[in-house]
Amino acid sequence: MRAVQKNVPLRNLTTIGLGGNARFFYECESTTDIVECLNFVRKNNLPILPLGGGSNIVFADEGYDGLVCKIGLRGLIFTEERDTTLVSAMAGENWDDLVCSCIEKGLGGLECLSGIPGSVGAVPVQNVGAYGQEVKDSIELVTCLDRNDGSEILFSVSDCEFDYRSSRFKKKDKDRYIVIRVNFRLKNQASPGISFPEVQRWIDEKFGNDFLSYSPADALKKTREAVISLRRKKSMVVDSADPNSRSAGSFFMNPVVSQSLCDRIRASYPDLPFFPAPGGCKIPAAYLIDRSGIDRSYRIGGAGLSANHSLAIVNFGGSAKDVLALAAWIEKRVEKLFGIALQTEPVIVGNNDHD
Ligand SMILES: Cc1cc2nc3c(=O)[nH]c(=O)nc-3n(C[C@H](O)[C@H](O)[C@H](O)COP(=O)(O)OP(=O)(O)OC[C@H]3O[C@@H](n4cnc5c(N)ncnc54)[C@H](O)[C@@H]3O)c2cc1C
Q1: Can you tell me the distance from the alpha carbon of 11 to that of 17, in angstroms, rounded to the nearest whole number?
Q2: Is 225 a catalytic residue?
Q3: Fewer CB atoms < 10 Å away: N or C end of the chain?
């Protein structure tokens, strides 16, 4: 094992740019490296945290008193099998590069997930989704290492217990497995899966009826262009030139509430959008925040809402404490007005009140 680094600043490893130091840090390039990290933490009685692109995590200002293990395993294999292609991607591959490569090859299923930051290994953890697509619909197999003994274990899609921004890796097996490889099954020469009116509108405005004459491969590329353009407008593409993109993406999940609560809210807010979901109705957290009278220019310390997206809390030069105080303030306002407890989407690490 190469030397474990000490006192490594976490803020440089996260998109929100926050967090103190990792007491120990190691960049794993192989499964052997991960197993050695597991042995290291077992021997020293420390916690371990696998880190990908750091785009869905908020570390405490005090840092992480354990080993942060950056998952840098690389490798990408495309195997064509009749009308589909099996894409086997190691966990440290960059997610958006993978999406782009698949689109270049005319493979459909991931195009609406263009522009999402982070690594391949993290996508099953919260069943990444956007613009009507979820990664669960393209995943075939997730290969993990068990943190308890370093053994390899395979999970089929149904084993993963995927749900809205969730999976077994976030729920019952939180902190148990490290994802090392994800296999995707994608359709060859596929037409794009456009189900989101916003994407369709963008395409209609830009390409009109010409879009219908594009080859499937070109249509996938244009769909990627649409999604990235829409995301950019909302500062949902990480860009060092865009201060509003210094975030962890959406800070709150869209709540699922009972039909009766949804009806009660709609009695006062008839324009509340809602979508049928298991257990009731899913309603947009952004609507609740906007209607709670939360001014996007309001700041706690250096934390504020994105000027371009009411779900993103942005680090404009503050601390994790500021971000979490703002999140708590928003949660309180929404709960008071609507009786709904918002759930945070990013993983909050080492901030005792929020763990
Ligand atoms: C601007 C912006 C836009 C975003 N838009 C979207 C969006 O549209 N849809 C969406 O779903 N998400 C979105 N996100 C959130 C985020 O990009 C995704 O959740 C992404 O998959 C996180 O990947 P990561 O590698 O950065 O994970 P990290 O932030 O590094 O880690 C997140 C969690 O996963 C765990 N983890 C990471 N790698 C592994 C592994 N190999 N094995 C086990 N656990 C692991 C970490 O321990 C941590 O608990 C956005 C974020 C930003 C900043």
Answers
A1: 4
A2: no
A3: C
pLDDT at 98 over 90: yes
Backbone Cα Rg of the chain: 21
Q: Is 345 a catalytic residue?
A: yes
Distance of CA 19 to the CA centre of its chain: 18
Q: What are the residues facing 48 on neighbouring strands?
A: 67
* Catalytic choice (55, 167, 250, 310): 250
- Report which ligand 1 atom has the smallest distance to the Cα of 238: 1
The predicted-structure confidence for 144-165, as pLDDT tens digits, reads as follows: 999 999 999 999 999 999 999 9
pLDDT digit string, tens, across residues 172-209: 999 999 999 999 999 999 999 999 999 999 999 999 99
Report which DSSP code applies to 295: -
Residue 21 in tokens: 């130091």
Domains parsed from the chain with CATH numbers: 5-71 (3.30.43.10), 76-233 (3.30.465.10), 243-349 (3.90.78.10)
Amino acid identity at 348: I
Cβ neighbour number for residue 79 with a 10 Å cutoff: 10
Q: Is the dihedral of CA 165, 119, 78, 230 positive or negative?
A: positive
Q: Which atom of ligand 1 is nearest to the CA of 247?
A: 53
Q: Which residues does a 6 A CB cutoff place in the pocket of ligand 1?
A: 15, 49-57, 71, 91, 116-119, 121-123, 125-126, 128-130, 178-179, 236, 238, 245, 247-249, 347
3-state secondary structure of 25: strand
